[in-house]
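re: that chain from earlier
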Amino acid sequence: MEQTASPAQTGLCIATLAGGCFWCLEAVYDQMKGVVAVESGYTGGQLDHPTYEAVCSGKTGHAEAVRITFDPTVVSYRELLEVFFVIHDPTTLNRQGHDVGTQYRSAVFFHAPEQRQIAEEVIAGVTKEKLYANPIVTEITPAGIWYEAEPYHQEYFVRNPFQGYCAAVVGPKVVKFRKQFASRVKT
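^ sequence. v structure.
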């Protein structure tokens, strides 16, 4: 059996973030310099091996999230969070636009104490800058078990850019990222 190296063994790091529909976050982070891979999935809930339908019921406790594998020599965890707090609304509890439920909550799932500290610092900075009129409700919680979403959710925006939700919701977030963070877009 072939052995594959873990991200840590290759010098890469993992960030796990939830901020509404995972298609939006995946589409943005796929285009960011230093990001090696983005996977849509579920975390933060009680059910083993949840399905999309179960998570959408709001009864599993899971959030739709992305697991980002990144090269810290190219992009920092802080930079990933700076983008995160611009491309979604961290002030709405269990909601992003028309997507409502705990599965759409804003959350940072930290993998190390340093990630927790950086998340707290970024939130304090965004609050101090008064980037949003309302208080930030993003939860900061330890990363738990990760469940990869079904294959049809992976790279959804790339494969379905003209689908209604993608055109109306995902596309504008990608455009916002590309405009506000032009220097961080992959070439």
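The first strand starts at residue 13 and ends at 19.
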